């Protein structure tokens, strides 16, 4: 997993990313260092961070980013949003998204979806009491219908609207059936169940819902026409039928009269949430749900008591329950307002005036906070290693504050020489003289 942070004010945006990459092979998990933060252009103030899956269509994101950077050259885009859209268009090219890789990605998504459904079915079977045997086929249909309803509530991804998912699944029916047989190998799957599972796969392909192997892309910096920095977060689940399944998840666009600062965390963001909100998000959710359940139950106990039932009419009981629901809504709103005024706004007020070096220090500290929490708890250390930090400003461009290398820079001076603009110009002059 990953911890990444972007801290923005009107002057610059600071990006920080950890280095941990967790690899699962044959039921073993190993963690290795990797790069997740890159300059998207050598000539313009724009950067990109990658989280979750380190590969796209079995090609490392690092390779793709550097290929795109070479293809982009000295050209620029008007906005960060245009950089994101152009990058999504680039990764859909035939060299990266071959027919074989698109089929492989379809089966990967199928396996991920059917694994979720199979786990849900098996968990319900395990929870069933011995005296209450379940109809397994009916249970699978029930779970599939629940998944269908969840997908419908999310909606379709705009990039997939033109895809005939039904035809696509039929085209690869034999391979999809193999995945179904593998995931439900302990359960007899008849043709009706196969069709139901294919139907939910069709809906999944079209939906904005993503598999566990998705990748998150964070574009941040300045477009050619932007005075203040902006950020665009994109999620992609690979290419299906030669179409990149991706959508914009979040956009932060600073302006002079509106939003003037922003702190955004990606992937494992719980510690940043604690720092910003003054309380853990999971704890807050638990308290809200507990109080909701407690008051609802207390209200029901009161109105259903024998003496209350005799004296209260239906209209009065409904009115009491409505008042309780209103008070609960007020409680949620009051808590959110308190957290924002007491914790969030004071921090944002300071961040608004931070110089570039302090923006970088803050971004790095927030990633370090997540790494420390993982290290001193029983949770798996999926965040760690050296932290890469960069600051992007309109005037100075993309500046590395901290950057790890897999080699010793003092032993590879020719590497930096090759990357210098003077070296490039000397090569060009040599070619002209040779002609």
Question: Could you characterize what this model shows?
Answer:
The chain is α+β, with helices and mostly antiparallel strands and 435 residues long. The chain has 14 helices and 14 strands. The chain has a five-stranded antiparallel sheet, covered by helices on one side. Strands 5-6-9-10-11 form a five-stranded antiparallel sheet. A two-stranded antiparallel sheet has the order 3-4. A hairpin with an 8-residue loop joins strand 9 (215-221) and strand 10. Helix 8 (270-277) crosses helix 12 and helix 9 (281-303) packs antiparallel against helix 11. The chain starts with a strand and ends with a helix. Residues 431-435 have low confidence and may be disordered.
Keyword list:
435 residues, alpha+beta, 5-stranded antiparallel β-sheet, 20% strand, disordered C terminus
Structure summary:
The protein is α+β, with helices and mostly antiparallel strands and 435 residues long.
